[in-house]
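Before the break, one more example. Copy the sequence into your notebook; we will annotate it together after we see the structure.
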Amino acid sequence: MQTGLHLSIHAFEPAAWDALNPSCYPGLLHGFLSALEDSKSVGEGTGWRPLYASVTEHNELVGAIVCYLKSDSYGEYVFDWTWADAYHRHGLNYYPKCITAIPFTPASGPRVLIKHDADQKEITRLLIETLKKELTGRVSSWHILYPDEDSYQCFETSDAWLERFGVQFHWFNQGFTNFDDHLATFNSKRRKEVRRERRRVAEQGITFERLSGHDIDGDALDTLFQCYQMTYRIRGSLGYLTRDFFEYAVDRIPDAVRVAFAIHQGKRIAMSFCLRDKQTLYGRYWGALYDVDCLHFETCFHQWIEDAIAQGIERFDPGAQGEHKIARGFRPVKTRSLHWIENQEFASAIEQFLKRERSHIDHYFQACDDHTPFKLSEETIRI
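Here is what the structure looks like once it is written out:
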């Protein structure tokens, strides 16, 4: 087997790359990664410099890992600013660091791509060995953010990884045939609250359309990007992604793109942008041109639960934290990240910090789980 390092996704043929991703996890599709690069949403000057490790056998791509060399910690959602500050106070550089993650996307999924019938253990070893050889002395650390269980097991077999936990809120399809089936699992109080919330949006004359990437034209793209930027503008900043990114994504991975638009008096006034694979819907971006009561909940949560039920999707991962999701039918789940710290003194200190943090995470998870809106008679789903 031969290993290699590459600076662009364009080093790989799209079909060969996507053959390693049979679930069509959207954050690792060739079209998604090339959309990020070609739109200059990642690359020089963005804080995200791509680095790809590969393994080939008989000239066939059999394994790969996507990394980024980072000059800051923006857009990651596993917060290590205090670690960077500690390095700085001791006269050391925390940046550059390396991360294996999907830019601006706190969604669990594969972080190692391996051909299904290949030697997973050996390919993982070669990929990690190749990257550590390249990274040692160049970066302070390597961080694997939001790996799914299979990828976690791949990395976990290697030594020196520190494990960190977090909590998100996901919705699970229990074989529902419509939204009322979903609400039937709620207790009476919470069920009435959701219906009141949805009714409030409808009473304001708001309707909705849900589109795949195939259905999004130039006008829809303009509104989508305007709404996306509005979310950041009200915070006094600009979004990380360019309009070109959304255009390229719609063009290159149309089956993976889902967009909900809120419409008032014939005009699109808000949007929610999602990605999907064969089993999961991933909520990513939202924005509104006007402030409308309860619009965020309807556009970002209720519309997509309806869509997931209609599409037969098993899980809806709406993104980062937010206890407000619990009352709308989302359950707490634990997320993981893995961290390799080159400086052993800091590795020991961070390991102790993570042990203390995990206790708080465990208590927080339980507190969230105790406040789900479901009937007491329903058996709790444990993740």
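The mean pLDDT is 94. The longest strand covers residues 60-70. Try to locate both features in your own notes.
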